Amino acid sequence: MPKQTAPVKKNEIITLKFEDLTHEGNGVGKINGYPLFVPNALPDEEAKVKVVKVNKNFGFGKVLELISESPERVDPLCHVDCNGCGLQHMSYQLQLEMKQNQVKNAMKKVAHLEEVPIHPIIGMDDPLHYRNKVQIPVGEKDGELITGFYQKRSHRIMENTETCVTHNEVINEVVKAVRSIANRLGIKAYQEEKHTGVLRHIMVRTGHATDEIMVVLVTRTEKLPNQDVLIAELTEAFPNIKSIMQNVNEKRTNVILGKKTKLLWGEEYIYDRIGDLTFAISAKSFYQVNPVQTKTLYDKALEYAQIDSNDNVIDAYCGIGTISLFLAQQAKKVYGVEIVPEAISDAKKNAKLNGMTNAEFFVGEAEKIMPWWKAQGLDPDVIVVDPPRKGCDEELLKAMLDMQPKRIVYVSCNPSTLARDLRILEDGGFKTQEVQPVDMFPMTGHVECVTQLILKKD
Ligand code: SAH
Fold this sequence. Notes:
The protein is an alpha/beta fold. The protein is built from nine helices and 20 strands. The chain folds into three domains: about 15-70, CATH 2.40.50.140; about 95-125 and about 290-455, Vaccinia Virus protein VP39 (Rossmann fold); about 135-275, CATH 2.40.50.1070.
């Protein structure tokens, strides 16, 4: 057994001064150099802390009492103990500083790119009610249907806590209405342990520029009792509802959506506009959740791409073709690739909708399609990537290095994997020019970045 080196023991109560924040927003205080991570503690604060977990090189604690308060501490607008919005106890300014530092640290420690300019993060004027999509679990209590978030680190639904300060306010109203109508109509809630009941999740999505609303009822069974009455009451209460879909998920799983999605009422899409472009969005497709900041993010990506009318461009991880069509306004031709077939059919529809004939879309794994394109002789001038949190696949990075585009624009929602991938691209002959962080997710620890790389000339 390795010798325990921690200077504290579990359950010990200590006084701790905090000096830093982790990227999840936990306070960091040190005892003889040994870091203790403590939720709800801010830099420059002092607190009486109970040690709750002791590992070899770091531990965790819980605030029992604050001895001194930071001027950056604010009263959280919401006290629900869910897994989201973990930064509500700090001023928005401090949230932004914390995210900026997160990017800076990743660039320094992981990418070893200390000299690259990181611009000040672009925050929101109003950092509340930005989310255009939510998925709320449905459960049962004393025979009544309830909706709400899972309690932190559990699968217990906290009764009727579905409203959140980050949600678009209409969404909160729609979820409450679905819950109350479904309850009155006797629609049974899904019960996870027994795998019985019907309604599992309520998903609601809105178009920011159009105010259109989509409701997706995720059910265990194909049959949705009293669906006609539910639809009639909902559409009467919310005339902006343009689409009601049912998604059937028969499996015992934490994955929210099942394979089959069918139209119950209205259209299969809602529409939104970003800049001059209109987008059709279907139930299963990824669409950025913060519409105000999306425009800022895409404008930056376009600026970094520096496209001219002779350029062939690849947009990898293209979703419903949003970035692709922005690029296609300036490029000769854009090739988009995305793994979700429904998103690609949205992308094709969106190209038509906007009268664009110079964008072509492919379903597949970007890491497989890119080498195939290379083998076909596709020689892109610019490549844009916007991968999920795990970053770019190695094969995809290799394909980019083989293709030698003039520029790469890397849109990332995870600074650690961004930094890891930038190191590989740097070693392969690209130079990181600049990084622009954008706050797409206020009140949470997440941060988005757009990065420009250029091919180094020998
Ligand atoms: N650029 C788009 C989507 C970004 S989100 C936008 O701004 O809206 C990342 C997208 O990558 C998702 O649509 C996801 O379905 C897709 N994806 C995940 N893994 C993939 C892979 N291996 N190959 C291609 N697409 C993938």
